[in-house]
Amino acid sequence: MVVRGADRPPPLRPLSAGPLGVLPKNPRGFTVIELCIVVLIIGVLIGTATPFFLSFLDAERTRAAAREVAVLLNQARQLAITKNSSYTVQVDQPNNRLRFCSGTAVCADDTAAWKGAGTDSSGYFKLTNESKIACGGSPTFSALGAATTAATLRVQNSNGTSSSYVVVSASGRIQTASSGTCS
Question: Model-level pTM?
Fold first, then answer.
């Protein structure tokens, strides 16, 4: 026996009216206006946050470069202790690099410069990001690790909008700071 309509879906029920007595046109989706408003709100939030994020990024790059300089200065200090000899950090500001010179004076030639991992053929370390060493002296570390010549170096980002300082105290302690005066 064949039952008529057995393969048909059940009939649809009529939609009930909403709280205002109006039937929604599309009960399962969003209108174009609602989607446009959401996109507009997201655009305003992104537009507001972008300048703050970019300035944060510049400041972080500068602080990272200052930490890199501090690590290099600590390496010079450890080299002086290990070799039981004084080492001077020679800062080449125009070329944005530095090197370690044996003794208490800057290197007269490349033979007095320490050469090791991360240096070029002249013994220079180059900063890895676009930051630069804007000013500062050339600290000298004694065989005991103390700085016979203390110094403060200022590290700036490439466009000069952010700076951080690396301070070498007379005891040989090296730290980064947000403010300072070059010496």
Answer: 0.73
